[in-house]
Amino acid sequence: MPMLVQDSLDEAMTALVQKVIDQLMRFAGNSMTDDGPGCKAVPPAGDTNTDPICSTKADLMAVMDPSQGDSSLQAQKVFLSEMALAMDIGWNKSYVQVVSGVDGQVLLDKWNYTNKARLACDAQHISVPSGQLDLMQTLDALITYYGNLLDQERSDMTARSNTQVLLLMRASTRIDNEDDVAYKLNTLCDMFPDLNIFTLTDNPNVFSGVQQKMDRRQFLSDNMFTTESSQQGIRDTLVPKVNSQMCQTPSRFVYPACNTDNLGYTYNENNHEYTHFITPGRVAYLRLGPEQFFSSSDLKLQFESTFGSLQFCISREDPMPADGGDDVTCMSTESVSTSQVEFTFNAPCNEDQMNGDCPPFYISIQQNPASTSTDNVNLCSDDECPFPNSIRYTLKHENMRCNSVSSLAVPAFLLAAAALLRQVAQ
Questions:
Q1: CA angle 258, 109, 122 (to 5 degrees)
Q2: Distance of alpha carbon 12 from alpha carbon 18, whole angstroms
Q3: CB 131 within 8 A of CB 73
Q4: 311 — phi, psi (to 5°)?
Q5: Which residue, 170, 215, 159, is CA-closest to 190?
Q6: Measuring CA to CA, how many Å separate 151 from each of 154, 158, 178, 354, 422?
Q7: What are the structural domains, with CATH classification, of the chain?
Q8: Is 234 helix (H, G, I), strand (E, B) or coil?
Q9: Cα angle at 49 between 43 and 51, to 5 degrees?
Q10: Cα–Cα distance between 176 and 212 in angstroms, integer?
């Protein structure tokens, strides 16, 4: 029997392990379902196959309209079911919550679903109480919901949050009380500036009046509408369109020190950081709103990468900043172990600007394009690594101040009205 040489054995084992890793990576790449907000159907963000695919986690709040008959209601159910299958539903991933447009009653609670198949099945069989669409009462319930979400984020000392999308569904008939609905939406958006509003209807004029009366344009695009009612048409046409819109919507940066209910609240800024992971071939988008840094001077944003080299791009105008774009500044970490870059901004908001006029910071994160996937990544050893080649990044900051934003971002009467609505609802 021939003797095994140690060097030959080590070499053979190394080659075998590498083959196993290659097969695992190929399987993971073929089976991943988070191209957009966890969707297979979202096309690449760029024009070529080498451009990165956006990767966004989203919380979708869908408002159903039962007032236009069974066929309309069935189309809404089919859409929600197909959306559930397209998204990466799961714990610490994307979520879907469904409420009635009659009164804001919860029909499907997002915390009950960590399995997309179960969510899709239940969405097809939602029991929706009959009645007329009442967006005023529904928005009162949503003000309570989003207010409680903000309170929970502050108490948890969280740094990041999923993209928040409010989807209003309405068939055919234009909204009657457009002024009142626009006012209520403005109240909600003042309280929750990161909220993104989508509309879904078969008539482009249904929400146009409300949209035009909004103080700030938080409708990410013009009204989306479709004449598709078949399940195949919804799956092939509508779901990819909605997913593409969600994919282009940045995740949220949350700073617990921005507590508008307590101006004496203090927080150790050194303890606050945003940590997440990016996989090569994908890009993450992040929004840092002016409500988080309104009173800052000499603001510093520090990005650290571990297990690979990353490129960080920042813009005040483009929600999807890319290297070479107008008003875009990019910096890259160089080391495959741990490396850091820093952006500095002197007085990011002018003294004569109201909070709503001060633009946010839009941030994109992706693998450093100057390096290849083979020489730019160490195996990710963090317990939370989603994949072996994931790269961890951390956002820290210095001199982030928002102590005066509460009196500028949200008028006192709006804060009082929102608080009263939440108390009444509870």
A1: 150
A2: 10
A3: no
A4: -110, 130
A5: 215
A6: 5, 11, 29, 24, 12
A7: 53-249 (3.40.50.410), 261-408 (2.60.120.380)
A8: helix
A9: 80
A10: 14
Q: For 242, which DSSP code?
A: H
Report d(CA 186, CA 210) in Å as an integer.
10
| CA gap 15, 345 in Å, rounded | 49
Q: In this predicted model, what pLDDT tens digit does every residue of 52-65 receive, in sequence order? A: 666 678 899 999 99
**Number of Cβ atoms within 10 Å of the Cβ of 404:** 13
| Size (the chain), residues | 426
Contact 284, 366 (CB under 8 A): yes
Report pLDDT digits (tens) over 360-400: 999 999 999 887 655 556 788 888 888 888 899 999 998 88
| Contact in structure between 384 and 277 (CB atoms under 8 Å) | yes
Name which of 29, 67, 55, 235 is nearest 163 in CA terms. 55
Q: What is the DSSP letter of 284?
A: E
Predicted structure pTM score: 0.76
Distance, CA of 416 to CA of 69 (rounded, Å): 38
Residue indicated by tokens 């013009």: 222
| C-alpha span between 221 and 198 (Å, rounded) | 8
Distance between CA atoms of residues 35 and 53, nearest Å: 6
Residue in this structure with the two tokens 């048409």, named with its chain if needed: 233
- d(CA 394, CA 398) in angstroms, rounded, equals 14
